[in-house]
Design a protein that fits this description.
Blueprint: H1 2-36, H2 46-63, H3 79-104
Region (Disordered): 1-40
Biased composition (Basic residues): 1-24
Length: 105
């Protein structure tokens, strides 16, 4: 009974050692790749990426298309037609409202 336990223990220790060495090799491989590719693509900070995205969005807002929705004929529409139209309008309105709030921040 004790031999079986010892055998299982040795087997488990082998597995743990193999995992440890594999982790070490992977770490060294990543480190080598990092040194090799250091000049190819510079890593930017989150703050820089966020500001870059914000600038792009601001530029797109001024150059993008405008949308005008005429709701004067809604009294002729059925409830079945009004509901999806209203949902779509609220989605676009919510999006533009969020953009206005983010512009202030």
């Amino acid at each position: 009974h004790k031999k079986n336990v010892q055998r299982k223990q040795r087997h488990w220790e082998k597995i743990v050692a193999a995992k440890k060495s594999k982790r070490k090799q992977e770490k060294e491989r990543r480190k080598a790749n990092r040194v090799e590719n250091s000049g190819i693509c510079p890593q930017h900070s989150k703050r820089f990426l966020r500001s870059l995205t914000k600038e792009k969005l601001l530029g797109a807002r001024h150059s993008g298309p405008r949308l005008c929705i005429d709701l004067s004929m809604t009294h002729h529409m059925s409830k079945k037609v009004k509901h999806p139209l209203n949902s779509a309008f609220l989605l676009t309105r919510g999006r533009s409202r969020w953009e206005q709030l983010s512009r202030r921040a």
